[in-house]
Protein backbone atom coordinates (compact mmCIF):
# COMPACT_ATOMS: atom_id res chain seq x y z
CA UNK A 1 0.00 0.00 0.00
CA UNK A 2 2.87 2.36 0.81
CA UNK A 3 4.33 1.75 -2.65
CA UNK A 4 1.00 2.64 -4.27
CA UNK A 5 0.70 5.85 -2.27
CA UNK A 6 4.30 6.75 -3.16
CA UNK A 7 3.57 6.03 -6.85
CA UNK A 8 0.50 8.28 -6.79
CA UNK A 9 2.41 11.02 -4.96
CA UNK A 10 5.08 11.05 -7.68
CA UNK A 11 2.48 11.20 -10.47
CA UNK A 12 0.51 14.03 -8.90
CA UNK A 13 3.72 15.84 -8.04
CA UNK A 14 4.89 15.72 -11.65
CA UNK A 15 1.46 16.77 -12.83
CA UNK A 16 1.30 19.71 -10.44
CA UNK A 17 4.67 20.96 -11.70
CA UNK A 18 3.46 20.62 -15.29
CA UNK A 19 0.24 22.42 -14.51
CA UNK A 20 2.12 25.25 -12.83
CA UNK A 21 4.03 25.87 -16.05
CA UNK A 22 1.16 25.45 -18.50
CA UNK A 23 -1.67 27.87 -19.10
CA UNK A 24 -5.06 26.57 -17.87
CA UNK A 25 -6.52 27.01 -21.35
CA UNK A 26 -4.45 24.03 -22.44
CA UNK A 27 -6.53 21.65 -20.31
CA UNK A 28 -8.99 19.78 -22.48
CA UNK A 29 -10.98 16.60 -22.60
CA UNK A 30 -9.29 14.04 -24.80
CA UNK A 31 -11.19 13.09 -27.93
CA UNK A 32 -12.80 9.67 -28.21
CA UNK A 33 -10.58 7.03 -29.80
CA UNK A 34 -11.16 5.79 -33.32
CA UNK A 35 -12.80 2.63 -32.01
CA UNK A 36 -15.59 4.76 -30.52
CA UNK A 37 -16.99 5.32 -34.04
CA UNK A 38 -19.03 2.21 -33.31
CA UNK A 39 -18.61 1.69 -29.57
CA UNK A 40 -18.65 -1.89 -28.28
CA UNK A 41 -18.17 -3.41 -24.85
CA UNK A 42 -14.54 -4.19 -25.68
CA UNK A 43 -13.94 -0.43 -26.13
CA UNK A 44 -14.99 0.38 -22.56
CA UNK A 45 -11.41 0.58 -21.30
CA UNK A 46 -10.67 3.51 -23.65
CA UNK A 47 -14.15 4.99 -24.06
CA UNK A 48 -13.89 7.20 -20.95
CA UNK A 49 -13.44 10.91 -20.35
CA UNK A 50 -9.80 11.86 -19.81
CA UNK A 51 -8.11 15.12 -18.95
CA UNK A 52 -4.95 15.89 -20.90
CA UNK A 53 -2.37 18.46 -19.87
CA UNK A 54 -1.36 20.49 -22.90
CA UNK A 55 0.49 18.32 -25.40
CA UNK A 56 1.79 15.78 -22.92
CA UNK A 57 0.93 12.13 -23.67
CA UNK A 58 -0.50 11.57 -20.19
CA UNK A 59 -4.27 11.31 -19.76
CA UNK A 60 -5.90 11.23 -16.33
CA UNK A 61 -9.46 10.47 -15.30
CA UNK A 62 -11.59 8.46 -12.95
CA UNK A 63 -14.95 8.07 -11.30
CA UNK A 64 -16.44 7.90 -7.82
CA UNK A 65 -19.47 6.14 -6.34
CA UNK A 66 -21.24 6.71 -3.04
CA UNK A 67 -24.64 5.75 -1.75
CA UNK A 68 -26.92 5.29 1.22
CA UNK A 69 -28.31 1.85 1.99
CA UNK A 70 -31.24 0.70 4.10
CA UNK A 71 -32.10 -3.01 3.91
CA UNK A 72 -34.21 -5.42 5.92
CA UNK A 73 -34.37 -9.21 5.66
CA UNK A 74 -37.45 -10.87 7.18
CA UNK A 75 -38.08 -7.71 9.16
CA UNK A 76 -34.57 -7.46 10.59
CA UNK A 77 -32.46 -4.44 9.64
CA UNK A 78 -29.10 -2.98 10.61
CA UNK A 79 -30.41 0.52 9.91
CA UNK A 80 -29.24 3.22 7.56
CA UNK A 81 -25.65 3.30 6.35
CA UNK A 82 -23.62 5.57 4.11
CA UNK A 83 -21.09 3.91 1.88
CA UNK A 84 -18.19 5.16 -0.20
CA UNK A 85 -18.33 2.33 -2.69
CA UNK A 86 -15.28 3.11 -4.72
CA UNK A 87 -13.01 5.70 -6.26
CA UNK A 88 -11.24 4.67 -9.42
CA UNK A 89 -8.35 6.44 -11.15
CA UNK A 90 -7.38 6.06 -14.81
CA UNK A 91 -3.90 6.77 -16.12
CA UNK A 92 -3.04 6.34 -19.76
CA UNK A 93 -1.27 7.73 -22.73
CA UNK A 94 -0.03 7.23 -26.28
CA UNK A 95 3.63 6.34 -26.42
CA UNK A 96 3.37 6.20 -30.19
CA UNK A 97 0.56 6.44 -32.72
CA UNK A 98 0.25 2.67 -32.48
CA UNK A 99 1.38 2.04 -28.88
CA UNK A 100 -0.93 2.92 -25.99
CA UNK A 101 -0.89 2.33 -22.27
CA UNK A 102 -3.92 2.28 -20.01
CA UNK A 103 -4.29 1.58 -16.28
CA UNK A 104 -7.14 1.48 -13.79
CA UNK A 105 -6.53 1.73 -10.05
CA UNK A 106 -9.50 1.19 -7.75
CA UNK A 107 -10.02 2.07 -4.07
CA UNK A 108 -13.02 0.24 -2.61
CA UNK A 109 -14.87 1.11 0.63
CA UNK A 110 -12.47 3.92 1.43
CA UNK A 111 -9.13 2.10 1.28
CA UNK A 112 -10.38 -1.29 2.51
CA UNK A 113 -9.32 -2.74 -0.84
CA UNK A 114 -6.87 -1.32 -3.37
CA UNK A 115 -6.69 -3.10 -6.69
CA UNK A 116 -4.95 -2.63 -10.02
CA UNK A 117 -7.79 -3.74 -12.29
CA UNK A 118 -6.15 -2.97 -15.59
CA UNK A 119 -2.63 -2.03 -16.62
CA UNK A 120 -1.78 -3.04 -20.16
CA UNK A 121 0.20 -1.95 -23.19
CA UNK A 122 -1.51 -2.19 -26.58
CA UNK A 123 0.39 -2.56 -29.85
CA UNK A 124 -2.07 -1.63 -32.61
CA UNK A 125 -0.89 -3.18 -35.86
CA UNK A 126 -4.18 -3.18 -37.77
CA UNK A 127 -7.91 -3.04 -37.12
CA UNK A 128 -8.11 -6.84 -37.17
CA UNK A 129 -4.89 -7.63 -35.30
CA UNK A 130 -3.60 -5.98 -32.13
CA UNK A 131 -1.48 -7.22 -29.24
CA UNK A 132 -2.20 -6.55 -25.56
CA UNK A 133 -0.09 -7.48 -22.56
CA UNK A 134 -0.19 -6.72 -18.83
CA UNK A 135 -2.96 -6.86 -16.24
CA UNK A 136 -5.94 -7.70 -18.44
CA UNK A 137 -9.65 -7.56 -17.65
CA UNK A 138 -10.89 -11.02 -18.67
CA UNK A 139 -13.70 -10.42 -21.21
CA UNK A 140 -16.30 -12.84 -19.84
CA UNK A 141 -19.78 -11.46 -20.50
CA UNK A 142 -20.11 -7.72 -20.92
CA UNK A 143 -20.24 -6.32 -17.39
CA UNK A 144 -16.74 -7.43 -16.44
CA UNK A 145 -15.30 -4.98 -18.97
CA UNK A 146 -18.03 -2.35 -19.05
CA UNK A 147 -18.42 -1.94 -15.28
CA UNK A 148 -17.90 1.79 -14.63
CA UNK A 149 -20.48 3.04 -12.13
CA UNK A 150 -21.56 6.18 -14.04
CA UNK A 151 -22.72 4.02 -16.96
CA UNK A 152 -25.40 2.25 -14.93
CA UNK A 153 -28.73 3.38 -13.45
CA UNK A 154 -28.32 1.24 -10.30
CA UNK A 155 -26.02 1.60 -7.28
CA UNK A 156 -25.54 -2.17 -6.94
CA UNK A 157 -23.69 -4.18 -9.53
CA UNK A 158 -25.57 -7.21 -10.90
CA UNK A 159 -25.65 -10.11 -8.44
CA UNK A 160 -24.78 -12.69 -11.10
CA UNK A 161 -21.76 -10.62 -12.11
CA UNK A 162 -20.46 -10.20 -8.54
CA UNK A 163 -21.58 -13.24 -6.53
CA UNK A 164 -21.57 -15.91 -9.24
CA UNK A 165 -19.03 -14.50 -11.71
CA UNK A 166 -16.01 -12.65 -10.28
CA UNK A 167 -16.79 -9.04 -11.27
CA UNK A 168 -13.87 -6.93 -12.49
CA UNK A 169 -11.79 -10.11 -12.64
CA UNK A 170 -8.35 -9.41 -14.03
CA UNK A 171 -5.13 -11.38 -14.44
CA UNK A 172 -1.65 -10.98 -15.83
CA UNK A 173 -1.25 -12.23 -19.35
CA UNK A 174 -1.31 -11.34 -23.02
CA UNK A 175 -3.29 -11.90 -26.16
CA UNK A 176 -4.77 -10.43 -29.30
CA UNK A 177 -7.88 -8.52 -30.26
CA UNK A 178 -9.34 -6.82 -33.31
CA UNK A 179 -12.31 -5.52 -35.29
CA UNK A 180 -13.66 -5.75 -38.80
CA UNK A 181 -16.03 -3.09 -40.18
CA UNK A 182 -18.47 -3.92 -42.99
CA UNK A 183 -21.16 -1.33 -43.72
CA UNK A 184 -23.76 -1.69 -40.95
CA UNK A 185 -21.90 -4.51 -39.22
CA UNK A 186 -18.90 -4.68 -36.91
CA UNK A 187 -17.21 -7.95 -35.96
CA UNK A 188 -14.86 -8.05 -32.96
CA UNK A 189 -12.85 -10.66 -31.12
CA UNK A 190 -10.53 -11.01 -28.11
CA UNK A 191 -8.34 -13.95 -27.09
CA UNK A 192 -6.03 -13.99 -24.05
CA UNK A 193 -3.86 -16.39 -22.07
CA UNK A 194 -3.53 -15.34 -18.43
CA UNK A 195 -2.97 -16.65 -14.93
CA UNK A 196 -6.28 -17.92 -13.63
CA UNK A 197 -8.31 -19.65 -10.97
CA UNK A 198 -7.06 -21.51 -7.90
CA UNK A 199 -8.40 -23.91 -5.27
CA UNK A 200 -10.37 -21.11 -3.61
CA UNK A 201 -13.20 -22.00 -5.98
CA UNK A 202 -14.02 -24.86 -3.60
CA UNK A 203 -11.73 -24.13 -0.61
CA UNK A 204 -13.56 -21.09 0.73
CA UNK A 205 -15.74 -19.88 3.59
CA UNK A 206 -18.92 -19.69 1.48
CA UNK A 207 -19.59 -23.46 1.67
CA UNK A 208 -20.42 -23.42 -2.04
CA UNK A 209 -18.65 -23.36 -5.35
CA UNK A 210 -17.52 -19.74 -5.71
CA UNK A 211 -15.59 -18.22 -8.58
CA UNK A 212 -15.49 -14.79 -6.85
CA UNK A 213 -13.46 -16.39 -4.03
CA UNK A 214 -10.53 -16.66 -6.44
CA UNK A 215 -10.18 -12.87 -6.37
CA UNK A 216 -8.73 -13.24 -2.87
CA UNK A 217 -5.64 -14.82 -4.45
CA UNK A 218 -3.40 -11.79 -4.90
CA UNK A 219 -0.53 -14.06 -5.96
CA UNK A 220 -2.17 -14.47 -9.39
CA UNK A 221 -0.52 -11.18 -10.38
CA UNK A 222 2.87 -12.77 -9.70
CA UNK A 223 2.53 -16.38 -10.77
CA UNK A 224 0.06 -19.07 -11.79
CA UNK A 225 -1.31 -21.19 -8.95
CA UNK A 226 -0.71 -24.42 -10.90
CA UNK A 227 1.39 -23.56 -13.95
CA UNK A 228 -1.57 -23.90 -16.31
CA UNK A 229 -2.68 -20.78 -18.25
CA UNK A 230 -6.33 -19.84 -18.41
CA UNK A 231 -7.91 -18.99 -21.76
CA UNK A 232 -10.49 -16.25 -22.18
CA UNK A 233 -12.03 -15.58 -25.56
CA UNK A 234 -14.91 -13.55 -26.88
CA UNK A 235 -16.50 -12.86 -30.23
CA UNK A 236 -19.02 -10.07 -30.69
CA UNK A 237 -21.02 -8.71 -33.58
CA UNK A 238 -22.79 -5.39 -33.72
CA UNK A 239 -25.29 -3.99 -36.16
CA UNK A 240 -25.52 -0.21 -36.05
CA UNK A 241 -29.32 -0.42 -36.04
CA UNK A 242 -29.99 -3.61 -34.08
CA UNK A 243 -27.43 -3.83 -31.27
CA UNK A 244 -24.53 -5.94 -30.02
CA UNK A 245 -24.38 -9.67 -29.32
CA UNK A 246 -21.40 -11.24 -27.56
CA UNK A 247 -20.46 -14.85 -26.84
CA UNK A 248 -17.55 -15.53 -24.48
CA UNK A 249 -15.70 -18.34 -22.75
CA UNK A 250 -13.28 -18.41 -19.81
CA UNK A 251 -11.74 -21.53 -18.37
CA UNK A 252 -8.86 -23.75 -17.45
CA UNK A 253 -7.39 -25.93 -14.71
CA UNK A 254 -8.12 -24.47 -11.29
CA UNK A 255 -6.55 -26.89 -8.81
CA UNK A 256 -2.95 -27.48 -7.78
CA UNK A 257 -2.64 -30.99 -9.15
CA UNK A 258 1.12 -31.41 -8.76
CA UNK A 259 3.77 -30.29 -6.30
CA UNK A 260 7.50 -30.79 -6.91
CA UNK A 261 6.79 -33.65 -9.28
CA UNK A 262 4.35 -35.45 -6.98
CA UNK A 263 0.83 -35.88 -8.35
CA UNK A 264 -1.75 -34.57 -5.86
CA UNK A 265 -4.92 -34.85 -7.90
CA UNK A 266 -6.14 -34.99 -11.46
CA UNK A 267 -6.46 -31.75 -13.40
CA UNK A 268 -9.86 -30.23 -12.59
CA UNK A 269 -11.45 -27.73 -14.95
CA UNK A 270 -13.62 -24.70 -14.38
CA UNK A 271 -15.45 -23.50 -17.50
CA UNK A 272 -17.60 -20.41 -17.94
CA UNK A 273 -19.78 -19.60 -20.94
CA UNK A 274 -21.62 -16.29 -21.27
CA UNK A 275 -23.93 -14.50 -23.70
CA UNK A 276 -24.60 -10.77 -23.60
CA UNK A 277 -26.77 -8.47 -25.66
CA UNK A 278 -27.59 -4.77 -25.71
CA UNK A 279 -29.74 -2.64 -27.94
CA UNK A 280 -31.54 0.68 -28.13
CA UNK A 281 -35.10 0.84 -29.45
CA UNK A 282 -34.79 3.97 -31.55
CA UNK A 283 -38.42 5.27 -31.55
CA UNK A 284 -38.66 5.27 -27.73
CA UNK A 285 -34.90 5.42 -26.96
CA UNK A 286 -35.36 2.44 -24.66
CA UNK A 287 -32.02 0.86 -23.74
CA UNK A 288 -31.92 -2.88 -22.97
CA UNK A 289 -28.91 -4.83 -21.80
CA UNK A 290 -28.84 -8.48 -20.79
CA UNK A 291 -26.27 -11.04 -19.75
CA UNK A 292 -26.48 -14.73 -18.84
CA UNK A 293 -23.71 -17.12 -17.82
CA UNK A 294 -23.29 -20.87 -17.26
CA UNK A 295 -20.55 -22.32 -15.04
CA UNK A 296 -19.29 -25.91 -14.96
CA UNK A 297 -16.78 -26.94 -12.28
CA UNK A 298 -15.21 -30.36 -11.78
CA UNK A 299 -15.87 -30.69 -8.03
CA UNK A 300 -14.27 -33.67 -6.23
CA UNK A 301 -16.74 -36.41 -5.29
CA UNK A 302 -15.60 -36.14 -1.67
CA UNK A 303 -17.17 -32.67 -1.38
CA UNK A 304 -20.70 -32.24 -0.06
CA UNK A 305 -23.68 -31.56 -2.29
CA UNK A 306 -23.61 -27.88 -1.26
CA UNK A 307 -20.72 -27.41 -3.71
CA UNK A 308 -22.53 -27.22 -7.03
CA UNK A 309 -20.96 -28.56 -10.20
CA UNK A 310 -23.17 -26.31 -12.32
CA UNK A 311 -24.30 -22.71 -11.83
CA UNK A 312 -26.26 -20.28 -13.97
CA UNK A 313 -27.56 -16.76 -13.70
CA UNK A 314 -27.85 -13.35 -15.24
CA UNK A 315 -29.73 -10.09 -15.44
CA UNK A 316 -31.77 -7.85 -17.71
CA UNK A 317 -31.76 -4.04 -17.45
CA UNK A 318 -34.39 -1.85 -19.11
CA UNK A 319 -33.85 1.91 -19.09
CA UNK A 320 -36.41 4.36 -20.44
CA UNK A 321 -35.77 8.14 -20.71
CA UNK A 322 -38.95 9.94 -19.68
CA UNK A 323 -37.99 13.60 -19.36
CA UNK A 324 -35.24 15.48 -21.17
CA UNK A 325 -35.00 19.25 -21.18
CA UNK A 326 -32.91 22.05 -19.66
CA UNK A 327 -33.33 22.02 -15.89
CA UNK A 328 -31.64 23.97 -13.07
CA UNK A 329 -28.86 25.13 -15.36
CA UNK A 330 -28.21 21.74 -16.93
CA UNK A 331 -29.11 21.94 -20.64
CA UNK A 332 -29.05 18.16 -21.22
CA UNK A 333 -30.75 17.06 -18.02
CA UNK A 334 -32.44 13.65 -18.37
CA UNK A 335 -34.69 11.61 -16.08
CA UNK A 336 -34.94 7.84 -16.60
CA UNK A 337 -37.03 5.07 -15.18
CA UNK A 338 -35.37 1.68 -15.06
CA UNK A 339 -35.83 -1.88 -13.89
CA UNK A 340 -33.38 -4.72 -13.31
CA UNK A 341 -34.49 -8.37 -13.11
CA UNK A 342 -31.96 -10.89 -11.79
CA UNK A 343 -31.78 -14.59 -11.14
CA UNK A 344 -28.90 -16.74 -9.86
CA UNK A 345 -28.76 -20.50 -9.22
CA UNK A 346 -25.57 -21.49 -7.41
CA UNK A 347 -26.35 -25.21 -7.55
CA UNK A 348 -28.08 -26.51 -10.65
CA UNK A 349 -29.13 -30.13 -10.28
CA UNK A 350 -30.90 -32.64 -8.05
CA UNK A 351 -30.08 -34.60 -4.90
CA UNK A 352 -28.75 -38.04 -5.85
CA UNK A 353 -30.60 -39.73 -3.00
CA UNK A 354 -34.10 -38.31 -3.63
CA UNK A 355 -33.90 -36.79 -7.11
CA UNK A 356 -35.42 -33.62 -5.61
CA UNK A 357 -34.33 -30.23 -6.93
CA UNK A 358 -31.36 -28.53 -5.28
CA UNK A 359 -32.09 -24.88 -4.63
CA UNK A 360 -29.54 -22.33 -3.31
CA UNK A 361 -30.88 -19.67 -5.65
CA UNK A 362 -32.00 -16.06 -5.70
CA UNK A 363 -34.46 -13.86 -7.57
CA UNK A 364 -34.50 -10.07 -7.46
CA UNK A 365 -36.39 -7.26 -9.15
CA UNK A 366 -35.25 -3.67 -8.72
CA UNK A 367 -37.16 -0.66 -10.09
CA UNK A 368 -35.24 2.62 -10.15
CA UNK A 369 -35.40 6.30 -11.02
CA UNK A 370 -32.30 8.15 -12.16
CA UNK A 371 -31.40 11.71 -13.01
CA UNK A 372 -28.49 12.62 -15.26
CA UNK A 373 -27.73 16.35 -15.11
CA UNK A 374 -24.92 15.60 -17.57
CA UNK A 375 -24.26 12.29 -19.35
CA UNK A 376 -21.25 11.44 -17.17
CA UNK A 377 -23.00 11.97 -13.81
CA UNK A 378 -25.98 10.08 -12.40
CA UNK A 379 -28.08 10.31 -9.25
CA UNK A 380 -30.13 7.16 -8.76
CA UNK A 381 -32.82 5.86 -6.43
CA UNK A 382 -33.82 2.19 -6.36
CA UNK A 383 -35.81 -0.33 -4.33
CA UNK A 384 -34.80 -3.98 -4.32
CA UNK A 385 -37.30 -6.82 -3.81
CA UNK A 386 -35.35 -10.02 -3.28
CA UNK A 387 -36.13 -13.65 -2.49
CA UNK A 388 -33.36 -16.12 -1.62
CA UNK A 389 -33.80 -19.88 -1.10
CA UNK A 390 -31.47 -22.16 0.85
CA UNK A 391 -30.16 -25.50 -0.40
CA UNK A 392 -33.34 -27.39 0.56
CA UNK A 393 -35.80 -24.88 -0.87
CA UNK A 394 -37.29 -23.78 2.45
CA UNK A 395 -39.47 -20.63 2.45
CA UNK A 396 -37.24 -17.86 1.07
CA UNK A 397 -35.58 -15.06 2.99
CA UNK A 398 -37.37 -11.87 1.94
CA UNK A 399 -35.27 -8.76 1.54
CA UNK A 400 -36.23 -5.18 0.77
CA UNK A 401 -33.56 -2.54 0.22
CA UNK A 402 -33.70 1.20 -0.51
CA UNK A 403 -30.71 2.92 -2.06
CA UNK A 404 -29.92 6.49 -3.05
CA UNK A 405 -26.60 6.93 -4.76
CA UNK A 406 -24.44 9.24 -6.84
CA UNK A 407 -21.79 8.27 -9.37
CA UNK A 408 -19.74 10.48 -11.64
CA UNK A 409 -16.71 10.56 -13.88
CA UNK A 410 -14.21 13.30 -13.09
Q: What tags apply to this protein structure?
A:
single chain; 410 residues; mainly beta; Porin; 16-stranded antiparallel barrel; two-stranded antiparallel sheet; 2 helices; 20 strands; globular
Query: What is the total domain count?
Result: 1
Radius of gyration: 22 Å
Q: What's the architecture in CATH terms?
A: Beta Barrel
General shape: globular
**CATH level-1 class:** Mainly Beta
- What is the strand arrangement across the widest sheet? 3-4-5-6-7-8-9-10-11-14-15-16-17-18-19-20
Number of strands: 20
Strand content: over 45%
Largest sheet: 16 strands, antiparallel, barrel
Spatial gap, N to C terminus: 23 Å
Low-confidence stretches: 1-36
Q: What's the pLDDT, averaged over the residues?
A: 89
Question: Strands, helices and their partners?
Answer:
Layout: H1 2-21, E1 27-29, E2 51-53, E3 58-73, E4 76-96, E5 99-108, E6 113-126, E7 129-137, H2 159-164, E8 170-182, E9 185-194, E10 230-239, E11 243-253, E12 258-259, E13 262-263, E14 269-281, E15 286-297, E16 310-324, E17 334-345, E18 361-374, E19 377-389, E20 397-409
Antiparallel strand pairs: 1-2, 2-3, 3-4, 3-20, 4-5, 5-6, 6-7, 7-8, 8-9, 9-10, 10-11, 11-14, 12-13, 14-15, 15-16, 16-17, 17-18, 18-19, 19-20
Would you kindly provide a written description of the structure presented here, covering whatever features stand out?
This protein is mainly beta. The chain has a single domain, classed as Porin. It is built from two helices and 20 strands. The chain has helices at about 1-20, 160-165, and strands at about 25-30, 50-55, 60-75, 75-95, 100-110, 115-125, 130-135, 170-180, 185-195, 230-240, 245-255, 260, 260-265, 270-280, 285-295, 310-325, 335-345, 360-375, 375-390, 395-410. Strand 2 and strand 3 form a beta hairpin. It starts with a helix and ends with a strand. The model is unreliable at about 1-35 (pLDDT under 50). It holds the Pfam family Porin_O_P. Keywords: Signal.
